[in-house]
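#random but structural
TW: two for the price of one
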Amino acid sequence: MRVTTAALAFAVVGSIMLTIATSVCGASAPSKPAGGSVRFIETPTSATTGSIIITGAVGDYGTVVSVDKNGATEPNGKYLKVALKKGSFMVNGTAIVAKEKTTSFPINHSSCSSSGSISAPVTLFGGAGLYQRIRGTVRVTETFAWVLARHTSGAQEGQCDGHDITKMVVATIGSGKVRF
């Protein structure tokens, strides 16, 4: 996926908010999180990577990489490696990936656009750094919106091409509880 304007704006706003928070709160050594409720927002930056911010019991930010169960980078992998500033962990996303593959959304043929959301639980494991021994379940919702191209010639000229996406935006949000 291409970097979207919304993702870029989100990253800029996130950087500004982090700078303000560091100035106001002061930088200090991270303490071991106690566990509890978390919320996150993730947006893709490429076919295999994304940007993430986690709040609540874990206040941190960083990147996600789509991987296979062995940790090798893989577009549309069923797992994610979450690399934050204070540590990292893995996410087993097999349930949400299964929904991605089996869910379809209706196309508005007059505007050649569509949107929709899917939700499923994911599990966290394999922590390092400040997130050693992390475990928990987070309910994830992925929201998609896209515009399709139109056929430019032939018998279907002017009609929606149901496979050629011109622009797509994806936002992933979630909440749940973690333990350490």
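TW: number two ↓
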Amino acid sequence: MKRELLSSGAPWEPIVGYSRAVSVGDAIWIAGTTATGPDGHIVGETDAYAQTVQALKNISAALERLGSSTADVVRTRMFVTDISQWEAVARAHGEVFGTVRPAATLVQVVALVDPAMLVEIEVDAVRGSGGRG
């Protein structure tokens, strides 16, 4: 099976040794994704909802580059630095995945790489499984 690596162009990818996404056959794994905007800065610095929206936009863009879509997502993992913000994170997640209904996990972590980051999301997808991929 063909293994395809997708880079976001972030300078730390080769240092850490990871890819934004990896696909093998119809399976796609998207690495932990934050609210980094096109300018390299965090979008919605103190707003968990805005950060979740941006992270999901970044994930959607990666899926599209691999010939997939959010409709193909079968699992999400959401890492938050403040569990009291779960409703804001869940609302943004529901706006994207309300009808897809992937298996989902939301947990609090002590910290993310940058203190401005409030949310990090991973997804797994199966290309074509949602009928739009």
